[in-house]
Amino acid sequence: MTEQLIAVEKASLTFSGRLVLENVDLQVNRGEIVTIIGPNGAGKSCLVKGLLGLIRFNQGKISKLKNLKTAYVPQKLHIDETMPLSVSRFLKMVPAAKSAKITEVLQEVQLHTLEQAAVQDLSGGELQRLLLARVILQAPDLVVLDEPAQGVDVIGQQDLYQLIASIRDRYHCGILMVSHDLHLVMEATDRVLCLNRHICCTGHPDAISQHPEYLSLFGEAMDGFAVYTHHHDHEHDSHGNVVPLGSGCQHWNETSGCGQTACSSAEKKDG
Q: Fewest Cβ atoms closer than 10 Å to its Cβ: which of 7, 25, 113, 244?
């Protein structure tokens, strides 16, 4: 039986007389990844913040699982450059986090070689992995990620989304994401909600990608991309190091790409 973690019905929000959200319904169940997509100014972050109680909807009913435990990763994390903060120390700030578990989680997110590195020196992808490590230590029912691939290069984005999916699978939590990464996120989610102040369409990615409302919002952005196939004789880990070819990688690149056993790519059409 499907366990509903959180839901909102008929959510509306107005700021300074401007309608930001109108009659929005959303629910997230345990074990599924739900992604909110939409253009800038569509109300995506406001919807998430309303669900989390960070802002209050003008109207709408929110229902939650009793004792719901939520982990939230915002778009940006600002850390003072002068603060002496290592990766390990950052994770030790999670209540009741044990050193052995921190080491295990860093291995899981492929940051085990950076345990003593300064957080300020991490790349965009490494920082996002660190934030996901913190999420794992919190053992939440619901994970909320606002633009998780922001600041991550295109090669690292696919690996990041695969890590998010593995967290869902291993810990059987629900995941709610906000994303602009249309090419990748449509492969990495179970259900998509296309938002532009109101819900334009919602459902499985395959159905949404053909929906007239989706095409009217993103058709121009998607035009010119096609998938083609080639194969690599090697692959790279999350730090860019060459490693033996195994299960393969998947990434989007506008000039080169590869297929299912290696990596997915988008190439500009010749016309």
A: 244
| Cα dihedral across residues 153, 144, 70, 161: positive or negative | negative
Say how far residue 194 (Cα) sits from the centre of its chain: 15
Cα 156 to chain centroid distance, Å, stands at: 13
Rounded to 5 degrees, φ, ψ at 246 are -125, -115
CB burial class (10 A; 0-12, 13-18, 19+) of residue 214?
buried
CATH architecture of 4-223: 3-Layer(aba) Sandwich (3.40)
Give the helix/strand (H/E) hosting 20.
Answer: strand 18-29
Asked if the model's pLDDT at residue 141 lies above 80, the reply is: yes
The answer to which of 6-10, 230-234, 253-257 has the lowest mean pLDDT is: 253-257
Q: Place 49 in a pLDDT band, splitting at 50, 70 and 90.
A: very high
Per the model's pLDDT, the better-predicted residue between 74 and 4 turns out to be 4
Percentage of residues in the chain having pLDDT higher than 70: 74
- CATH 3.40.50.300 domain range(s) in the chain: 4-223
Strands 198-203 vs 191-196: parallel, antiparallel or unpaired: antiparallel
